[in-house]
Amino acid sequence: MDFKYGTGNLALDLVGTVGHRRTDVLELLTGPADVARWVAGAGLVDRPVAVDDAGFAATVRLREAVYRLALASIEGSGQRAADRRVLNEAAAGPGVKVSLADDGSVRRSGGLDAALTEVARAAVELLGGSSTIKECAAPECTRLYVDQSRKQARRWCDMRSCGNRAKVAEFRARQKI
């Protein structure tokens, strides 16, 4: 299955590698190769990163800490100190190196640790800022996203999938009346 990256924040894109958290959990990161594919798809670095079992575990640990912190932000509940510690430790590392190439393009280099540092920094900026994090209103979807709509009225993680299904269901319900 392909990864989705349209949440409005890199860290929430990583959180989205688990779907349907309350029903039929869909885990998209099943091993190191999946983490390497996700990093490549996110465009964090130009060359594939090497991921071992420890790197896989670190990625999942960061993802779950960000998920719990974001959910606490949505619900207005307290954050776990252990989750903040995982996030802050990852954010403190050396990030992806960027340079301007002779042809004017941007080059991004680094390993998995650098990529995870960038993800963690995106989470810190999101959770410590004024952005509105929401969870998709579709009952079976648990995807988190940043609501960047003018009136903060966005309800679905993606209009092409969850939003479309909800609108079709509403239309069919009206037709039965």
TrEMBL record:
InterPro entries: ABATE, ABATE_dom_sf, Znf_CGNR. Residues 133-175 form the Zinc finger CGNR domain. Pfam families: ABATE, zf-CGNR. It comes from the Bacteria. PANTHER family: BLL6575 PROTEIN. This is ABATE domain-containing protein. It comes from Amycolatopsis nalaikhensis. The lineage of its organism: Bacteria, Bacillati, Actinomycetota, Actinomycetes, Pseudonocardiales.
